[in-house]
Amino acid sequence: MDLAQEELQFLSIPEILRESISIPRRSPKTFYLITLTLIFPLSFAILAHSLFTHPLLVQLQNPLADPAQTKHEWTLLLAIQFCYLIFLFAFSLLSTAAVVFTVASLYTSKAVSFSSTISAIPKVFKRLFITFLWVSLLMIIYNSVFVVSLVLLIIAIDTQHSVLLLFGGILILLLFLVVHVYTTALWHLASVVSVLEPVYGFAAMKKSYELLKGKTLFASVLVFCYLVICAIIGGIFRGVVVHGGDNYAVYTRIVVGGFLVGVLVIVNLVGLLVQSVFYYLCKSYHHQGIDKTALHDHLGGYLGEYVPLKSSVQMENLDV
User: Which regions span the lipid bilayer (predicted)?
Assistant: First the structure.
């Protein structure tokens, strides 16, 4: 990022996107390898897992299916879903760690390579994992509140007042969407904080909450646009590739599927870059200076590099 730190707070959304897209040019080989080894498998899994689960779901909906076969299909479906969630969780954190670390290294003019990024991931991953657990707890709480509220609404309203029931349901869904978008923004920023600052877990979430003040709407727009784009890509993929066997040729489905995976790879890479740039924007907005020397040393700590001892005592003046 070539902009002065005090200028970052004035970036608009198009400027953030332009700034984020320009970052890989500073180390194209590193970002190419990160994209190929981490972001591509993540994006492919997000779209392709429905290809494996859809046939099983169709069989499970068949009322004439053999009970023994149904049990086997349920077991297989749960196994696929479990493996998918583990894979999704792991590669999501790995991609975040790699991109945030690489962007920060470039920001501090630290020598960066794919090997140095991979070497730093184990320690970064542990911090991100703890932060993710706290965010997951928050998500479980607000999802539980949403379900309970919806059930209470249905029970409380007489079924004859269908309009009132519909209005209440829409209101709860909107509130759920707002909380979901805000929590996602909180999580993304807390992930960057966990890598770049000596805090993680609940402390990183608290720091993220403080940084979002004044930029909540800004962050919500970015997250909402990302979620909508991903939903559109997923919807087209399911409509053409997964469910389009009767309407589209195999070649067409392969081409469209490959194209959509490529688009999602780009969206995920840009999303991670925006996530990093937005952290610096929030720091600038709150006039929290970023000591590049301290950040450089902090990043070096992940690699086990020697960090010089800062002391007012001049060792060379001591008598032997």
Answer: 31-54, 74-107, 128-157, 163-196, 217-237, 257-282
Q: Which residues contact 84 (CB under 8 A, 6 or more apart)?
A: 45, 49
**Residue with the two structure tokens 């609940």:** 202
Contact 24, 31 (CB under 8 A): yes
What tokens appear for 300 in the block? 């070096």
The SS3 call for residue 270 is: helix
Residue 267 CA to residue 222 CA, distance in Å, equals 12
Q: Is the pLDDT of residue 232 over 90?
A: yes
Cβ-based neighbours of 25, under 8 Å, separated by 6 or more = none
Terminal C-alpha separation, the chain: 46
Largest CA-CA distance found in the chain, in angstroms, rounded: 93
| Confidence at residue 312, expressed as pLDDT on a 0 to 100 scale | 38
Q: In the structure encoding, which two tokens stand for residue 194, read together?
A: 């966990």
Structure letter (DSSP) for residue 251: H
Question: How far, CA to CA in Å, does 150 sit from each of 57, 138, 172, 176, 201?
Answer: 26, 18, 7, 11, 30
**How far is residue 188's CA from residue 205's CA, in Å, rounded to a whole number?**
10
pLDDT of 41 reads 94
HSE, side-chain direction, 13 A CA sphere, residue 185: 25
Distance of alpha carbon 142 from its chain centroid, rounded?
Answer: 19
Q: Identify the band that residue 309 occupies on the pLDDT scale cut at 50, 70 and 90.
A: very low
Place of tokens 């590049």: 292
- 8 A C-beta contact, residue 19 and residue 50: no
Q: Between residues 136 and 165, which one has the greater pLDDT?
A: 136
pTM of the model: 0.84
pLDDT at 37: 94
How would you class 306 by CB atoms within 10 Å of its CB: exposed for 0-12, middle for 13-18, buried for 19 or more? exposed
